[in-house]
Design a protein that fits this description.
The complex is a heterodimer of chains A (about 600) and B (about 120).
Chain A: E1 6-11, H1 14-18, H2 21-34, E2 41-46, E3 58-61, E4 65-67, H3 75-85, E5 94-95, E6 102-103, H4 110-113, H5 131-136, H6 141-149, H7 152-162, H8 174-183, E7 190-195, H9 204-211, H10 213-227, E8 231-237, H11 241-257, E9 272-278, H12 287-294, E10 318-322, H13 323-335, H14 337-341, E11 351-358, E12 364-369, H15 374-381, E13 391-396, E14 402-405, H16 415-420, E15 429-434, H17 439-453, H18 459-476, H19 484-498, H20 502-506, H21 509-517, H22 519-527, E16 542-544, H23 553-557, E17 563-564, E18 572-573, H24 583-587, E19 593-595
Parallel strand pairs in A: 1-2, 7-8, 7-10, 8-9, 11-15
Antiparallel strand pairs in A: 1-3, 3-4, 5-6, 11-12, 13-14, 13-15, 16-19, 17-18
Chain B: H1 4-18, E1 26-31, H2 34-38, H3 41-54, E2 60-65, E3 77-80, E4 86-89, H4 97-106, E5 115-119
Parallel strand pairs in B: 1-2
Antiparallel strand pairs in B: 1-3, 3-4, 4-5
Classes of the chains: A alpha/beta (about 600), B alpha+beta (about 120).
One iron/sulfur cluster binds near residues 301, 455, 458 and 499 of chain A.
């Protein structure tokens, strides 16, 4: 007789699939059958846990044991030891990066302990392709409540009270946006979910769509009811095939059960949802470019007003929100706007999902309450800097964001504090950089990105970013001139003020913020032709400082006899001959050789 | 799906399946050391699972544990009920299982003839 006593949750998000979770799943099916445990053990495929670098991830319940980097070959041992005999396979447990302590339980891992998983509550814990799992977790309650107990005005009020702001970058109050669309005249209106997610390194929207697609559908349907739209469109980039597949499954299931379709919950409200695959240009995430793209035109922004709420898709009133914004809606309806507003800071409510990357021990998705400090995110959730190096800066907000230095680590993370500090929330990309990072190089990297993604429609962005990139490239190649800094500042100011869309308006941010906090590095590059971090290859020669005692050891190890000098006097390196092998630096007993 | 009540009913049904994901406060733990398995621990465990399924009992976690050094007493089965000491039974056979479940797990009465030890929690 079947009585399931344990669940094996296998991560089948994009990250874990690419590290081999499909093979691990096949192995579990095989081994569980071999041991005759089919009636006792259930294997469940889930979405991303946000800890993809640890993948493939396997969690065994009821104990909640967290196994990471599970390979096909490990499965027999998990089945034999853990599932058959109740013995935890210690070697596959997670280890904390600094203490090396082994952690058995998912909830005890520092990476998860400090998080507040609300939007991601189901991700990794339910099967995204089984609507029953979503319902068991409370799903579609919000839609039911909205349709049977609330007027559209009440729904909008609840969202207003919650203080929810758009998670797609701008941070515009969601309730207000819905109200504009509701009040706009028009018989046909649209709800659009922006799942373009073009920021390099960001993958929270993908994870939500892959791990909990019904939550987004539910949020869209609630919005449809609130503004009076009968049609929803999800604009998702074609590079997200798994998200698209799971969305299609979810839409079909929701239609089947009557959460999408006609007379939902016995009401007069009809709502259908379509998917539109985008080609994946960064600028297509901008709302007016996105609309153009859905209409089959080139994805180019247009000037606003009119705002989409008044004249959007096909000229009809349209409400556009980000994936994470919609994913926040169901819990606001179920628990109330006041409850939601009790989380976060005065002007930034709720939680935000960040994609932690860069030189940090734990990379992945972290959902945190607004107002948490950068330090908590980086050191407590992120586990500190990789290889014990020193923190240098954190780039927040993607290509439109800024770089913040150590002195800003205690800044509370919310929309307004970040803007004030010269960065922005953006979509939640968070790149941590260590002492080996050159800030001019970083600025160049981001300007290069925005420059190549510029649609070219307006001159300030098209030409201005090109000029900025030229100047930055010159600086990193040792060709920086006096006046470059002033020129960059001037260009930045003009582009910000005159570019047509957000891409151009924010493109100078990485340059401005690095100049604000790391001006000394720009000066070293321009005036001393030196890259302090030793990154810019044209400038990263080795040199001998005044600490040199003239011992001659470096001279002996140099393979190309680039070092010269008399005994007991300061030596020097011939930059023409030096091949930058670094051998001398390791040899000097007085730390007199520096890089950069 | 026409009303909120329909949804609620369906949800309650579906949730019982997910209870496995939480450790229940009532647990039946079978000793699965090498000697336990040799003495028939698997058969006892299957009997426990069958009994729970047949009686449609809910909120009971069935777990296993390693050898606890009382090998001569295998098969060992522990029963934990909320706020009660952990009771160990020894030399349990599949035929003893219905009694342990009915008497102790459900009604909280210790089965004296199989009792071998007690751990205060
Ligand atoms: C260049 C550019 C790219 C953008 N990319 C995205 C994106 O990938 N996803 C997104 O939700 N919003 C993106 N936005 C913001 C959208 O224009 C729009 O403000 C947002 O989708 C509104 O949703 P929200 O209010 O829920 O944040 C982008 C904006 C700009 C200027
Ligand atoms: S700012 Fe840049 S991306 Fe935006 S419309 Fe102008 S050229 Fe195109
Ligand atoms: S870096 Fe290598 S090549 Fe250059 S001076 Fe030192 S030892 Fe010689
Ligand atoms: S090894 Fe150091 S101290 Fe000795 S000569 Fe070279 S730079 Fe000077
Ligand atoms: S895909 Fe498995 S943790 Fe992200
Ligand atoms: S040409 Fe477009 S802003 Fe000037």
């Amino acid at each position: 007789m079947e009585h399931i006593r344990a669940h094996v949750l296998l991560c089948a998000g994009t990250g874990c699939i690419s590290s081999g979770s499909k093979k691990v799943e096949a192995a579990f099916q095989r081994e569980v059958a071999r041991k005759g445990l089919i009636d006792e053990i259930k294997i469940v495929e889930t979405g991303c846990h946000g800890f993809c670098e640890m993948g493939p991830i396997v969690i065994v319940y009821p104990e909640g044991v967290f196994y990471c980097h599970v390979k096909e070959e490990d499965v027999a041992e998990i089945v034999d030891s853990h599932l058959y005999k109740g013995r935890i396979v210690e070697r596959l447990l997670y280890r904390e990066p600094i203490s090396h302590e082994k952690i058995i339980n998912y909830n005890e891992i520092n990476f998860y302990k400090k998080q507040k998983r609300m939007v991601l509550a189901n991700c990794g814990h339910i099967s995204p392709e089984v609507i029953e799992d979503y319902i068991a977790a409370g799903g579609y309650e919000a839609l039911g409540q909205a349709l049977t107990k609330m007027t559209p005005e009440q729904v909008i009020d609840e969202v207003k009270v919650s203080g929810l702001r758009g998670r797609g970058g701008g941070g515009f109050p969601t309730g207000m946006k819905w109200e504009f669309a509701k009040k706009a005249a028009g018989d046909q209106k649209y709800v659009i979910c922006n799942a373009d997610e073009g920021d390099p390194g960001a993958f929270m929207d993908r994870s939500v769509l892959e791990g909990d697609p019904h939550r987004v559908l539910e949020g869209m349907a609630v919005c449809g009811y609130a503004i009076g739209a009968s049609e929803g469109i999800i604009y998702v980039r074609a590079e997200y095939p798994l998200a698209i597949k799971r969305l299609k499954v979810a839409i079909a299931q929701a239609e089947e059960m009557g959460f999408i379709g006609k007379h939902i919950f016995g009401s007069d409200f009809d709502f259908k949802v379509k998917i539109k695959e985008g080609a994946g240009a960064f600028v297509c995430g901008e709302e007016t470019a996105l609309l153009a793209s859905i209409e089959g035109q080139r994805g180019m922004p247009r000037s606003r007003p009119p705002f989409p709420a008044i004249s959007g898709l096909w000229g009809k009133p349209t409400n556009i929100n980000n994936v994470e914004t919609f994913a926040n809606v169901p819990q606001i309806i179920v628990n109330g706007g006041e409850w939601y507003a009790s989380i976060g800071t005065e002007k930034s409510k709720g939680t935000k999902v960040f994609a932690l990357t860069g030189k940090i021990n734990n990379t992945g998705l972290a959902e945190v309450p607004m107002g948490i400090t950068m330090r908590e995110i980086i050191y407590e959730i992120g586990g500190g800097i990789l290889n014990g190096k020193k923190f240098k800066a954190v780039q927040i907000g993607g290509p439109s964001g800024g770089c913040l230095p150590e002195s800003m680590l205690d800044l509370p993370v919310d929309y307004d504090s970040l803007i004030q500090a010269g960065a922005m929330m953006g979509s939640g990309g968070l790149v941590v950089m260590d002492e080996d990072t050159c800030m001019v190089d970083v600025a160049k990297f981001f300007v290069n990105f925005t420059q190549s993604e510029s649609c070219g429609k307006c001159t300030p962005c098209r030409e201005g970013t090109k000029r900025m990139l030229e100047i930055l490239t010159n600086i990193t190649e040792g060709k920086g001139k006096k006046g470059d800094i002033e020129l960059l500042q001037q260009l930045a100011k003009n582009i910000k003020a005159t570019a047509l869309c957000g891409l151009g308006q924010t493109a100078p941010n990485p340059v401005l913020s690095t100049m604000r906090y790391f001006m000394d590095e720009y000066e070293a590059h321009i005036n001393e032709k030196r890259c302090p971090a030793g990154v810019c290859s044209h400038l990263s020669g080795y040199s001998i400082t005044e600490n040199c005692k003239g011992c001659g050891l470096c001279k002996q190890v140099c393979p190309v006899t680039a070092i010269s000098g008399e005994v007991k006097s300061r030596h020097s390196i011939d930059q023409e001959k030096c091949i930058k092998c670094g051998a001398c630096m390791g040899k000097c007993p007085f730390k007199a050789i520096r890089k950069g | 799906m026409k009303t909120l009540e329909d949804l609620k009913k369906l949800r309650e049904q579906l949730q019982s399946d997910r209870k496995v994901r939480k450790m229940s406060s009532t647990q039946v733990i079978v000793g699965m050391g090498t000697c336990g398995i040799a003495a028939g621990a698997r058969e006892v465990m299957i009997a426990i699972l069958d009994e729970i399924a047949q009686k449609k009992l809910e909120d009971i976690s069935v777990c296993q544990t390693d050898c606890i050094g009382m090998c001569q007493q295998e098969v060992l089965v522990d029963v934990v009920r909320p706020n009660e000491p952990r009771i160990t039974y020894g030399r349990v056979k599949p035929t003893d299982v219905p009694k342990i479940i009915a008497e102790h797990v459900v009604n909280g009465r210790i089965v004296e003839e199989l009792f071998v030890g007690k751990i205060e929690q």
